[in-house]
């Protein structure tokens, strides 16, 4: 297994640099983020996302495939650095680290990069606050075969290590774009994509609405929902039925329901 260097002290400056990447300000300053975990790093490598450095600790490996993954990353140009358990624990943000942590640039796509198929299936996530929710939306979008996720007026950045973790690395597997609402709405109109806004005030259920054409499923924050510009621009408004005392679902759960209803409708049509 390739090893370019070894770090045995948690006071090493490179360790401190990795820890600083937990802060959004430092990620934006350096243009780097942390990709921790075997599934996450596997998907980054499989999708040819550039990886600058791989830190690894063999005593923490949970399987036998980690050395081969490190070799593949090294062959693609990554530096491989072995760490002691104490050093790795300092860099890791997980309760049970698996011995793999990489430093890489964040995912960067623009609206102009997207090449849409006929009848695209898109997700727009507006002002999502919790990294876990955004990561889960990405994971569901990947599972449903969505063509892209558009993150509008972000509250948490896609490069947040917890977003990457919650997505289980699927952030590297599908186009993810960060843009503001005005630009996204203009782009959707130019590409003839219908805006389907999820709101509890809608009259029609999501299962009673045509989701088989080219659409953008738009979800917003759990506390205040979608902003006025999205509601005003919506071609269709849909709601998910709520029969208990709660008046809303977790936003990632709602996005998943909408996505798989769109998948169901598309599969049912010739």
Spell out the helices and strands N to C.
EHHEHEHEHEEHEHEHEEEHEH
Global morphology:
elongated
> From the coordinates shown, what is the CATH architecture of the largest domain?
3-Layer(aba) Sandwich
| The CATH homologous superfamily of the largest domain | SPOUT methyltransferase, trefoil knot domain
Mean pLDDT: 95
Assembly state of the chains shown = single chain
For the CA atoms, what is the radius of gyration?
Answer: 20 Å
Provide the spatial order of strands within the biggest beta sheet.
Answer: 8-7-6-11-9-12-10
Question: Whole-Å distance between the termini?
Answer: 51 Å
Q: Major sheet, described briefly? A: 7 strands, parallel
Total E-strand runs: 12
What percentage of amino acids are in beta strands?
A: 15-25%
Summarize the amount of helix as a percent range.
Answer: 25-40%
In a nutshell, what does this entry contain?
The chain contains ten helices and twelve strands. 35% of the residues lie in helices and 19% in strands.
Q: Any overview of this molecule?
A:
The chain has helices spanning 13-20, 24-30, 38-46, 66-75, 85-91, 131-144, 161-166, 181-190, 228-233, 251-268; strands at residues 5-7, 33-36, 53-56, 79-83, 100-104, 121-126, 148-152, 176-179, 194-198, 204-205, 215-219, 236-239. It has two domains: 5-104, 60s Ribosomal Protein L30, Chain: A, CATH 3.30.1330.30; 111-268, Alpha/beta knot, CATH 3.40.1280.10. It is an alpha/beta fold. The chain is built from ten helices and twelve strands. Strands 8-7-6-11-9-12-10 form a seven-stranded parallel β-sheet, sandwiched between helices. The relative contact order is 0.14.
């Amino acid at each position: 297994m390739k090893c370019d260097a070894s770090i045995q002290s948690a006071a090493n400056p490179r360790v401190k640099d990795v820890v600083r990447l937990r802060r959004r300000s430092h990620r934006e300053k350096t243009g780097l983020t942390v990709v921790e975990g075997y599934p996450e790093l596997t998907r980054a490598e499989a999708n040819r996302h550039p990886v600058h450095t791989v830190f690894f600790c063999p005593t923490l490996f949970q399987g036998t495939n980690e050395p081969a993954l490190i070799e593949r990353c090294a062959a693609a140009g990554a530096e491989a650095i072995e760490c002691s358990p104490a050093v790795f624990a300092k860099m890791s943000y997980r309760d049970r680290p698996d011995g793999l942590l990489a430093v890489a640039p964040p995912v960067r796509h623009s609206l102009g990069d997207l090449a849409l198929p006929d009848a695209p299936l898109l997700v727009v996530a507006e002002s999502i606050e919790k990294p876990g929710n955004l990561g889960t939306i990405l994971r569901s979008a990947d599972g449903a075969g969505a063509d892209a996720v558009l993150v509008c007026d972000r509250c948490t950045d896609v490069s947040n290590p917890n977003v990457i973790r919650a997505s289980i690395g699927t952030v590297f597997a599908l186009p993810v774009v960060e843009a503001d609402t005005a630009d996204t709405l203009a782009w959707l109109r130019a590409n003839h994509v219908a805006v389907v806004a999820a709101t509890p005030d809608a009259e029609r259920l999501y299962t009673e609405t045509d989701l088989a054409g080219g659409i953008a499923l738009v979800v917003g924050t759990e506390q205040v929902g979608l902003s006025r510009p999205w509601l005003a621009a919506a071609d269709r408004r849909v709601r998910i039925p709520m029969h208990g005392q709660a008046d809303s679902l977790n936003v990632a759960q709602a996005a998943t329901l909408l996505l798989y209803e769109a998948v169901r409708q598309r599969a049912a049509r010739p």
